[in-house]
TrEMBL record:
<keyword id="KW-0949">S-adenosyl-L-methionine</keyword>
<comment type="function">
    <text>Metal-dependent phosphatase that shows phosphatase activity against several substrates, including fructose-1-phosphate and fructose-6-phosphate. Its preference for fructose-1-phosphate, a strong glycating agent that causes DNA damage rather than a canonical yeast metabolite, suggests a damage-control function in hexose phosphate metabolism. Has also been shown to have O-methyltransferase activity that methylates glutamate residues of target proteins to form gamma-glutamyl methyl ester residues. Possibly methylates PCNA, suggesting it is involved in the DNA damage response.</text>
</comment>
<keyword id="KW-0533">Nickel</keyword>
<dbReference type="InterPro" id="IPR039763">
    <property type="entry name" value="ARMT1"/>
</dbReference>
<dbReference type="GO" id="GO:0016791">
    <property type="term" value="F:phosphatase activity"/>
</dbReference>
<keyword id="KW-0489">Methyltransferase</keyword>
<dbReference type="Pfam" id="PF01937">
    <property type="entry name" value="ARMT1-like_dom"/>
</dbReference>
<dbReference type="GO" id="GO:0005634">
    <property type="term" value="C:nucleus"/>
</dbReference>
<protein>
    <recommendedName>
        <fullName>Sugar phosphate phosphatase</fullName>
        <ecNumber>2.1.1.-</ecNumber>
        <ecNumber>3.1.3.-</ecNumber>
    </recommendedName>
</protein>
<comment type="similarity">
    <text>Belongs to the damage-control phosphatase family. Sugar phosphate phosphatase III subfamily.</text>
</comment>
<dbReference type="GO" id="GO:0032259">
    <property type="term" value="P:methylation"/>
</dbReference>
<keyword id="KW-0378">Hydrolase</keyword>
<feature type="domain" description="Damage-control phosphatase ARMT1-like metal-binding">
    <location>
        <begin position="20"/>
        <end position="417"/>
    </location>
</feature>
<keyword id="KW-0808">Transferase</keyword>
<keyword id="KW-0479">Metal-binding</keyword>
<dbReference type="GO" id="GO:0051998">
    <property type="term" value="F:protein carboxyl O-methyltransferase activity"/>
</dbReference>
<keyword id="KW-0464">Manganese</keyword>
Amino acid sequence: MAAVPVSLAGSFQGSFAYFTIKDRLPQILTRVIDTLHRHKNEFFEEHGEKGIEAEKNTISILSKLRNELQTDKPLVPLDDKLPDVPLWNQYLEYQQNLLDGNEQPSWFQSPWLYVECYMYRRIHEALVHNPPIDDYDVFKEAKIESFFESQQAIIALCTYLQEHLKNIEDLDEKQLQEELFKLLQVSLWGNKCDLSISAGEDNSQKASPLKSLDNLKTFILVDDMESIWSLLINSKKRRTSIEVTRVDIVLDNAGYELITDLILADFLLSSKLVTEIHFHGKCIPWYVSDTTKQDFNWTIKQLQSANNRWMSRCGMNWEGSIKKGVLVYHDHIFWTLPHEFCSMAQVATDLYTELQKSHLIIFKGDLNYRKLTGDRKWEFTVPFHQALNKFHPAPLCSLRTLKSDVQVGLKPGQGEQFVTSEPDWMICGKYGVVQFDASL
Ligand SMILES: O=P(O)(O)OC[C@@]1(O)O[C@H](CO)[C@@H](O)[C@@H]1O
Ligand SMILES: [Mn+2]
């Protein structure tokens, strides 16, 4: 196979990577500092003087971090005690070895994917070094706010699921396929709502998600929904009563997007297209809005206790599915490492083996797409399978709105047409893909 292309990086002046490292990441750090400031009283009430001390120390570490980033300083090894530290520090060495003897990995020179992940891990390190606020999630407030901002859309989805799909057993194949396509698209467009692209500003779903699907259809650049349908319906037909059909969903953002993923999961289970859903979330706060176990549990609880009866019914059902073991939540440190997914088999063999049990893995969102394709300067027409670079644990698909400049699997001329007519087509979140790889 031909060598892989170079990584996107801040060294490409004027690229989205450059702009992100120069402007957006410092903005995110400033917001984190501001959040800690605003919660000073809360830290005092909970932990007394020790809380205030910890808040001050964390802020000073983060201000220093922002300065390192803005002046393109060398990346330094991590030095907390968490289990992923050796892997991070080996990765730094690996990046070092890719350079000429005198150069050192740095914010603008190293791959964008690496430095951006590294920033979030350094934010976590700053907190870990400062008990008693070491388990404080600096993005929690923004995630909670975005959940409440999307209330109407969440109600619309829960109502749809409960009312419209209560006769799901009676649907014929065509109708079942239509519902699947609808909810795949809802989950795809749910990915517009991430808080990293907006540097933490409100970016929630306000319009009715089901009504807008037809209008949005033309913005799906790669549509492999038929392949997903064939895979699922064939496996349903072949399955004996003791067999399992397992779908894994590698989650992205909490808030509205997570609800769309839960709705999709519920539909897959209640239609009996699948028998088990496995969710995968992050172990630490990540890219502002990504889902952690706390976010996941909080979301289910919120739904259960909501005033709206469809919302609370969804919450109850999902809690029930979790108890029955048909809805399973996992996390793994690999998801918050800087590695491309093609190194998962070596770096996180246990996770790779777990994913091999799946009949279909759904990767949500832009960052997962970047890691699937290695965040490299691929030609638009390179097949998705090739860009995966031997990452094939099971059949997989990506549901992703385009928010960074990597895209593969397009038809000849398809990408070029946008380059002139809509220069920001790859970063504005207006376009999406449902892109499938059959694995073998
Ligand atoms: O993975 P998500 O939530 O869809 O997007 C994450 C994201 O906002 O962060 C990066 C920019 O900082 C981009 O990869 C992408 O746009
Ligand atoms: Mn995200």
